[in-house]
Amino acid sequence: MEVHTHSHTPGKKWTHYFWEFFMMFLAVFCGFLAENQREHIVEGNRAKEYAGLLIQDLKNDSAYINHVLFNQSLMLKRADSLLSILSSDQFMNNNSKIVSLINHVSTLVDFKPAFRINFDQIKNSGSLRYFKNEKLVSSFSGLDRLLETTSEVYNGYNNFIDENLRPFMINNLNTLEFDIFSRTVLVPNPEIYNWNKREAVLLANKVNLKKTYDIFFVNQFLKECLEKNHGVISEIKKEYHIQ
After folding, report:
1. pLDDT, position 150
2. Beta strand 184-185 with 178-179: parallel, antiparallel or unpaired?
3. SS3 for 87?
4. Which of 5, 53, 73, 172 has a 20 to 30 A CA-CA distance from 34?
C-alpha cells in the first residue's frame, strides 16, 4: 500500500519578520527625512525670497529717509529765514517772503516707510517662522518698533503744525493770494491781516518751537532709522549671501 506524505513548509524565523519590519521602518523613515529635507529647502527658499523683498524695501526706505532729511534741512533753513524776518524791524515790509516761508514751514509729512507694510504682512501670515536666525528676526522687530515710534513722532509733529501754524494761515492770510500746494505766492504783496509786532513775536515763538522739534526729535529719529536700516541690510546679506 502506497503512503502519501504531505510536504511541510517550515515556519518563517523571527529574524525574517524583524528584517521585514526593519526595511519597512527604514523606508518610512527615509521618506520622512526626504520630506523634512524638502520642507527645509522650501522654507529656506521662501526665507531668501522674503529677505530679498525686505532688502528692496529697506533700500527704498533709505532713499526715502534721505529725501525726508534733505527736505528737513531745507525746512530748517526756511525757518531760520522766517525767524530772521520776524525778529527784524522790516517784518511789516516782507509780506511776500513771510507768506511763502510760512507755507513751506507748515508742510505736513506723512511718514510711511515700505518696510513696515511688508514686515506686518510677513508677521501676520505666520511667515516669520521661515527666518531661523533669531538675531535677524530680533533686528527686524527692533527696526519695526523704531519706525513705529518715528511715525508717532511725526504724528506729534503734524499735530503741532495743525494746532499752531496753520491757524495763522487761516486767520491771517488770504488763501486766494497763494497756492497752498505749490506754496507759490500769487500776488506781488499779499495781505497779512491783524499784523503787528505782537503777532510777529507769537508766530516767531511757534516757528522756533517747531524748529526745536525738528532738530531734537524728527532729525534724530530719522538718522537712527537710517543707521538701523543699513545695519539690517548688512545682516540680511550676510545671512543669505546676497550681493
Report:
1. 95
2. antiparallel
3. coil
4. 53
Per-residue pLDDT tens over the stretch 111-153 = 999 999 989 988 898 888 888 889 999 999 999 999 999 999 9
Measured distance CA(227)–CA(224) in Å, rounded: 5
| Domain range enclosing 96 | 15-240
The alpha-carbon radius of gyration of the chain (Å, integer) is: 34
The answer to the question of residue 4 being in a domain is no
Say which residue the cell 507768506 belongs to. 99
Give CA–CA dist 221/179, Å, rounded.
31
Residue 5 lies in a domain: no
pTM of the predicted structure, to 2 decimals: 0.79
Q: How many domains does the chain have?
A: 1
CA distances from 8 to 4, 5, 11, 16, 35 (A): 13, 9, 9, 18, 45
Residue 28's identity, in one-letter code, is V
Nearest to 231 by CA among 58, 63, 65, 68: 58
Q: Is residue 125 part of a domain?
A: yes
Candidates 90, 189, 221, 177; CA nearest to 81 is: 90
CA distances from 86 to 64, 68, 101 (A): 32, 26, 11
* Span 81-105, pLDDT tens digits: 999 999 999 899 999 999 999 999 9
State the Cα torsion 29-32-37-38 to the nearest 10°: 140
What is the chain's mean pLDDT, rounded?
A: 86
215 domain-assigned: yes
Decide: 133 and 43 in contact? Cβ < 8 Å: no
Phi, psi (rounded to 5 degrees) for 28: -65, -45
Please answer whether residues 168 and 174 qualify as being in contact, where contact means their C-beta atoms are separated by less than 8 angstroms.
no
Question: Strand, helix or coil at 184?
Answer: strand
pLDDT of residue 31: 58
